[in-house]
């Protein structure tokens, strides 16, 4: 692999003094908390804009302190413990979800090598040769918090929500893992810093005899994997339209029905931290990580110093906006539709794409990036067309007369379609007050 001068390698980790490591850990934890506070405000403002209403705008400038006020309100609410709950598991279940979501941020690269008080260090807490597997493990462990929260509540609806979450994780974890396999095959490493460095490796693509820079982001080279991965993380984080474990119309509030006060706040915190973490993970794997997008890359200093931190946060905010956009526009799917999408659509397509990708890598007389661009983009467009193409044309709704004519023989008799409903007593009184002359002339005033 070819790394640029500012790209960190595995050898650059483990050499920092203790105070610098502690500062990185605090920064990653603060990033998760602040992203949650701003994420709730951002979601309410964006959804309000989509629904033509202001959203939170009273507490603080632009309503920025509304989320903080809501958090303080939840902290001072009464903490209710159900009588049938398992007290130990009931207490630790929200903690498991929060810890797993925050731990995954430890291997996310926020930027390149920088100088902090004279020490050259990468903007990343740590990195290991299997860092991507660590994020997948944290994502898989987070479901234990949801399942245990539903089971320990001692109630029916939370239990159903927890079971739904377990089935949902199993269904979409496979498609998510296979999408990451495509990144392994292309980058040749499982290190998050190495994957970011590989996406910045410059190559030239020959088009009609003209050499042009080839795009390095895996969202372009591995477009089908990117589409399947993003759909899978939406289902993995229980976000709409895949928020079936907490479907209000079916399960009251799902697995969190019996929670209140700070425990409820921890569950909300884990959801938004997981959303930000998976967005950062998507940026790392498919969107070049902390590298600047084109045309900012024309500037030579775009990918050095502290500027990459800005590009990284911008990409994360863009993906969080997509999460909010989906929630504000799409209705919740039925459970059978959701499971069918994961097992019968995403999983087979992912397996076929991995087979095609392995065949492309076996061709030696053709540049790998050229092959991926020539095949991956059309395959991704075909995948989107397959997912969103209408399955069948809706049949026209029969008229009332056609419904009457097609009723089965021997069914209950139907009244004639021109049946006149007799007026109500109130209508008769109104008519009597307005037309006394007609009533007096009528032979029977009761029949008006």
Strand content: under 5%
Count of all domains = 1
List the helices and strands in order: HHHEEHHHEEHHHHHHHHHH
Strand order of the largest sheet: 1-2
Number of strands: 4
Can you lay out the helices and strands and say which pair or pack?
Layout: H1 18-50, H2 66-75, H3 87-103, E1 113-116, E2 119-122, H4 131-152, H5 156-187, H6 192-199, E3 204-207, E4 210-213, H7 218-221, H8 223-236, H9 248-251, H10 261-286, H11 307-329, H12 335-361, H13 368-388, H14 400-405, H15 425-434, H16 436-441
Antiparallel strand pairs: 1-2, 3-4
Transmembrane segments: 18-42, 88-110, 130-153, 174-196, 216-235, 264-286, 306-326, 338-360, 372-389
Organism: Micromonospora endolithica
Family: Belongs to the complex I subunit 1 family.
Written account of the structure:
The protein is mainly alpha-helical and 448 residues long. The protein has one domain. The protein has 16 helices and four strands. The longest helix has 33 residues. The protein is globular. It starts with 17 loop residues before the first helix and ends in a 7-residue tail after the last helix. The N terminus is likely disordered.
